[in-house]
Every structure is written in C-alpha cells, then in structure tokens.
Design brief:
This protein is α+β, with helices and mostly antiparallel strands. It folds into three domains: 115 residues, no CATH class; 71 residues; 39 residues, no CATH class. Helix content is 26%, strand content 15%. The chain is built from three helices and nine strands, in the order βββββββββααα. The strands form two sheets. Strands 1, 2, 3, 4, 5 and 6 form a six-stranded antiparallel β-sheet that branches. The chain has a three-stranded antiparallel β-sheet with strand order 7-8-9, with no helix packed on it. A hairpin with a 6-residue loop joins strand 8 and strand 9. Helix 1 runs antiparallel to helix 2.
C-alpha cells in the first residue's frame, strides 16, 4: 500500500530530465499530491503522475523563465530556436531566447520576468567540462614528468658524474626544478591563454570611432553587443536598451 499526502503548502514541480511524461519540459505545475514515488501535478485540471526523482520541487511560485535544451523528440519547435528555448513561468508558453537580454517578455500573457535563471544544469551534458579538466590535468602531469625526466636524462644517461659516491638517480634533488618548471609553464599558459581567448592585444577596435567612447575611461559604462548571433534582432535590442534608459545607443560598422 502506497502512502500519499495532500500538500499542506502550495508546491510547484518541474520536469528535470529529457523525458516524455505528457508535460511541457521546463514548465512549472501546481503539485496536487506527493507520494514516495510520484509527484502528481495539475495539468489543465487533470492529474498527471511524474516520477519523484525526475522532478524539481519548490515552495515559492516561479517568477523567472526556464531555459530548456531542445528535446531529442521535438517535432513542433522551430529550427530557428537552435538548441535552447525559454518557457514562461506564468502561462508555460514557449518562446525563442531573446538575444543578449537578461529578461524576456511573454507575448501570450504580457508577464515580464525579472531574469533568466541558469537552471539548465540537470539537462545539459558535462562532457566538455570533464574533457577540459582531464586534458588540463594531463598537460600539467606531462610537464611535471617532463621536467623530472629531463634531469634524469642529463644526470644518468647523457652526462653522469660520480660525486662522492652519490647515486646518479638522486630524485630528491630533481623535485625543486620539477616544481618550478610546472609553476612557470602554468603561469605562462594562463597569461597567454587569457590574451588569446579575449583576442588581445587589440590596438584598434571599431567602437573607438564613437565620439563619446572616450568617456569610458572616466565616468561612463559602455556595453558592446556584436551582431554575430543568428537570432540577433537589431530593433528588439535597441528597444530593450531604450527601456533601460540608456543615454545613447550607437550602431558601429565592423
């Protein structure tokens, strides 16, 4: 016999995995009943049971959009939405992600969310992050071993010298150089890696042609948005910044 209980406080549930249970992925539903194995949610006044381990629960009503990776079995989503889209916290309407926006308007019920939360972790693969960490560890390990075996080759193979009967492979004396070489290469990799990833040095940039940009080094803050995204909307971006009260919006030819 399975015990169940009506929720004493209002709760909301959201599917947290890429699976088809008859509910909209990324949408929050009112929880009608909780059991040890299921969470029964109200979907258009019909109870739908979801596996307890496949949902995310919360006690406060959702106020922010959900970012959802494109489902594997998606059939009605436009191809222009790419690999992610947003789900409204109020009406559960789906919409394309607004380019370069921290908030997005639902054109179905007019509700404006405060921001777009980063809640896509349960559905996003972490293979790239794991591979990066493994590759970084392998590089540093190779540097350590490279520094050690360089000294071993010089002292034991290429130019061995008998100093007071000391063993040729005196590995404790190799540790300081191995350590220093690892730190040196790690520091240089960090510095040049940051420069390369940020496209630096850049002695010239087209935004320098904007007359007011000289105030960036004084008392102004400038935000540069490059129109390289396929979903970039010039009019929508301009309207968004006008609503924020920007003192100036400029189009720069790259």
């Amino acid at each position: 016999m399975t015990k169940s209980a009506r929720t004493s406080e209002p709760q909301w549930a959201r599917l947290a995995e890429d699976a088809n249970y008859g509910v909209r992925r990324g949408a929050w539903y009112r929880v009608a009943e909780l059991t040890p194995s299921d969470a029964v949610v109200d979907v258009n006044r019909k109870p739908v049971a979801l596996p307890r381990g496949s949902v995310k629960l919360r006690t406060a009503p959702p106020k922010a959009w959900s970012i959802v990776p494109r489902p594997r079995d998606a059939r009605r989503l436009p191809e222009t939405w790419a690999d992610k889209y947003a789900v409204c916290p109020s009406c559960r309407n789906r919409a394309a992600l607004a380019a370069y926006a921290l908030r997005q308007k639902c054109y179905d019920d007019g509700v404006m969310s405060h921001d777009i939360p980063l809640i896509i972790a349960p559905l996003v693969p972490v293979v790239a992050l794991v591979v990066f960490r493994v590759n970084a560890a392998m590089v540093f390990l190779s540097l350590c071993l490279g520094g050690f075996f360089l000294q071993y080759w010089v002292s034991v193979v290429d130019y061995p010298i008998n100093v007071g009967g000391r063993p040729l492979n005196s590995w404790p004396s190799f540790i300081p150089v191995t350590f220093e070489l690892t730190i040196l290469v790690a520091a240089l990799s960090a510095v040049f890696g940051v420069l390369a990833l940020n496209g630096l040095p850049m002695p010239y940039h087209p935004v320098f042609n904007v007359e007011r940009f000289e105030l960036a080094s004084r008392n102004r803050f400038f935000l540069c948005i490059e129109a390289t995204d396929a979903t970039f909307d010039l009019d929508g971006t301009r309207k968004f910044f006008e609503e924020l009260g920007c003192q100036g919006i400029y189009e720069v030819d790259f």
